Amino acid sequence: MSNPDSADLAAARIGAIRQAAEQGDAQAQYELGHITARGEGVTRDKIEGARWLRKAGEQGHVDAQFLLAGLYLMGDGVAQSAPEGVEWLEKAASKGHADAQYLLGLMREDGDGCDIDPTDAARWYGQAANQDHAGAQYRLAQMKEHGVGCEINLTEAFKWYRRAALQDYPDAREDLLELCRAHPDLPLPVSELLDGKGRS
């Protein structure tokens, strides 16, 4: 007797996910929403995908909340709504989702879909930066250097530029070197900035 082929196995897996989702399992709802929105093994249906992601998000599933935020911000499978997108981003960010924290920081800094609030932007960047999000580390360093949304703190700017540079974030190394050339009193010589042995 032959084993079921891969298509049969995939169909069985999707069937099991759907059954669990219909029974209220948040992880299954997230998975079903994700594969339905992308058309992975099922007919692509962005509206149905968004519906399942919302069910998972309403149960506190952080990855579903983040994906749902993106759908609302782009109007993909749902009516575009920046306020609702921001609301879902805040839910995910408050649960520690680093990408949500970073994106929320960008939106608060630039006023993209919400009011400009540099102080709140710096707060979200800080939370993501502490989770080693290189983009957040770089943006936080810029804010610390120039006093946007926070007081100028060149030592902190140095630290965050360096941590972003150690992750090869674009422009971080150049900005770090420029900062040190402009402020030779900063804690480490330029030659030690990127060797991984100095202070983090």
TrEMBL record:
Tell me where on the tree of life, at the top rank, the source sits. Answer: Bacteria
The name on file for this protein is Sel1 repeat family protein
Matching entries from PANTHER family are given as:
ERAD-ASSOCIATED E3 UBIQUITIN-PROTEIN LIGASE COMPONENT HRD3, SEL-1-LIKE PROTEIN
Q: Which organism is it from?
A: Rhizobium leguminosarum
Q: Which InterPro entries match?
A: Sel1-like, Sel1_AlgK, TPR-like_helical_dom_sf
Among the Pfam families in the record, one is: Sel1
Which SUPFAM superfamilies does this one have? HCP-like
